[in-house]
Every structure is written in structure tokens, then in C-alpha cells.
């Protein structure tokens, strides 16, 4: 239920922001947020995105039985070390990096025993914190391969339009405009890690200095703040945040 609800809320916020004439130079979204980005960029209609997200959420839930998979956030270790930890911990059960969120924060996912072993190893190797996450499955790992294939069959049925501005793909952190490549990236996204830190770095290098987070919460603002400096971070999730964002944009115009 969460995924379609967040998509709907985020698109509602986007539509209101657009009604004030605010236009993006680039689009990006973290995991589920990539679907919001695709709708905002006019690559995919909201109706089609909603159908895909409903299927995606069901497939992700069915991919691994409840209680078998797990995710955890590891703070304070380098990506290379976390890669090594995941390889070693996989002797207890497959575990892989799932989200490269920002410097010093990487989420791992896999079978519960593998994740627990990785948490132990991370603490031994000097992690500041290793926190199990309250989620229902090992998203963005190879355990989602079958779900990714099933979602891909559905995605291929939908026409994707060329986006009105470049989209940064989760799986590559690169700018993309070609509809067929955007499709392939979206299919791979289910079983590959989200490269959010690199996505933000690439956006910054391309000249993005104002980031507007759309939808509930300000989690991405926090990740961006830890990744790049000298940027204006705004968000739109309700009337108060909308008015604040419009005011700040007017001040820097």
C-alpha cells in the first residue's frame, strides 16, 4: 500500500509546484522515487506509473517470504570495505549492497542471517552504527531477479516518451534521455543497488545547485546535504513547505 500512496502524494505535490511555473533542469528519484521522476519528466503517464508501482510493490513482497529477508544501514565505512563484508557475510546467507546513499551511509540487504552476520562484521571493522531497518524485503539485490523479470515484461508493454529534461538513473547514476534505455534501467533497478550518492555528485557537476525534494519527508535533503555543499535544499510535501519553497525560489531568482 505504501508505494502507490507515496507515488500519488508525490505527483500531487509535483502538479501543484508546476502550476506555479517551476521547471526542472534535471529529474532524479531514489528507488520508488524514480517513478515520480519519470512522471514529472513526462516519460510515463501517472496512470501507467501507478499500475507499474502496484505491480512492483506486489512482486517485491512476493519475491522473498516475510521474515526471510532483511535490510540494514551501515554508517561510517567505505564502500570497498562494505563490499568485502558482504562477500564474507554471504557464507551465512546472501547479502549485498542495496543503496549507496551518501558518504558514510550504505544500506545492505539480503537473507536475514547474512545481514545479521554483516552487521556483526561491520561493527568489528569499525562502523559507527549498523542498524537493522524495518522493511519487508531485501530490495535492490539479486534476490529480486525473478521479480525484476516479471516487472520487465509489464514495463515493455508501455510506451515511454523522451523526457522533457534528462533523468539520472538509479542503476548507473548517469543522465539519460533515450526511452528504451530508461526502460532497461527501470527494470534493472529492482535488483541493482541505488547509486544515489553518485547521482547527486553528477547532478552537482552538471550545474544543479537547487534541489527540490517532492513528497513526504525530507530524507533525500539529508542525504544530499552530506554529499555536496553550497546547494539550496527545498521540499514540497504540504502547503507550508510549498509556500516556503516558492518564497526561497523567488529570493534567489
Name the features:
253 residues; alpha/beta; 5-stranded mixed beta sheet; 3-stranded mixed beta sheet; 49% helix
What does this molecule look like?
It is a single chain. With 253 residues, this protein is an alpha/beta fold. A hairpin with a 2-residue loop joins strand 3 and strand 4. Helix 4 crosses helix 5.
Overall spatial form: globular
Strand order of the largest sheet: 5-2-4-3-8
Taking Cα atoms only, what radius of gyration do you get, to the nearest Å?
18 Å
Helix/strand/pairing category: alpha/beta
Distance between the termini: 39 Å
Q: Count every helix, treating DSSP H or I runs of 4 or more residues as helices.
A: 10
Helix amount, in percent? 40-55%
Percent in strands:
15-25%
Number of strands: 10
The biggest sheet, with number of strands, parallel, antiparallel or mixed sense and barrel status, is: 5 strands, mixed
Unreliable residue runs: none
Round the mean pLDDT to the nearest integer and report it.
96
Order of helices and strands: HEHHEHEEHEHEEHEHEHEH
Amino acid at each position: 500500500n505504501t508505494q502507490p500512496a507515496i507515488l500519488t502524494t508525490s505527483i500531487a505535490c509535483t502538479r501543484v509546484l508546476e502550476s506555479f511555473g517551476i521547471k526542472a533542469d534535471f529529474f532524479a528519484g531514489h528507488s520508488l522515487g524514480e517513478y515520480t521522476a519519470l512522471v514529472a519528466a513526462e516519460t510515463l503517464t501517472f496512470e501507467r506509473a501507478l499500475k507499474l508501482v502496484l505491480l512492483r510493490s506486489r512482486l517485491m513482497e512476493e519475491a522473498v517470504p516475510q521474515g526471510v529477508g532483511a535490510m540494514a544501514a551501515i554508517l561510517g565505512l567505505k564502500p570497498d570495505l562494505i563490499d568485502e563484508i558482504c562477500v564474507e557475510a554471504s557464507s551465512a546467507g546472501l547479502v549485498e549492497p542495496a543503496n549507496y546513499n551518501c558518504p558514510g551511509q550504505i544500506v545492505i540487504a539480503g537473507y536475514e542471517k547474512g545481514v545479521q552476520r554483516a552487521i556483526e562484521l561491520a561493527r568489528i571493522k569499525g562502523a559507527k552504527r549498523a542498524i537493522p531497518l524495518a522493511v519487508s524485503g531485501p530490495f535492490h539485490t539479486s534476490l529480486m531477479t525473478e521479480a525484476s523479470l516479471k516487472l520487465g515484461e509489464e514495463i515493455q508493454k508501455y510506451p515511454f516518451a523522451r523526457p522533457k529534461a534528462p533523468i539520472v538513473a538509479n542503476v548507473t547514476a548517469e543522465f539519460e534521455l533515450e526511452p528504451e534505455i530508461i526502460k532497461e534501467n527501470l527494470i534493472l533497478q529492482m535488483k541493482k543497488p541505488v547509486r544515489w550518492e553518485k547521482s547527486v555528485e553528477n547532478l552537482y557537476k552538471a550545474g544543479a545547485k537547487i534541489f527540490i525534494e517532492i513528497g513526504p519527508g525530507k530524507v533525500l535533503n539529508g542525504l544530499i546535504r552530506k554529499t555536496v555543499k553550497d546547494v539550496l535544499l527545498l521540499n514540497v510535501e504540504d502547503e507550508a513547505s510549498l509556500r516556503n519553497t516558492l518564497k526561497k525560489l523567488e529570493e534567489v531568482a
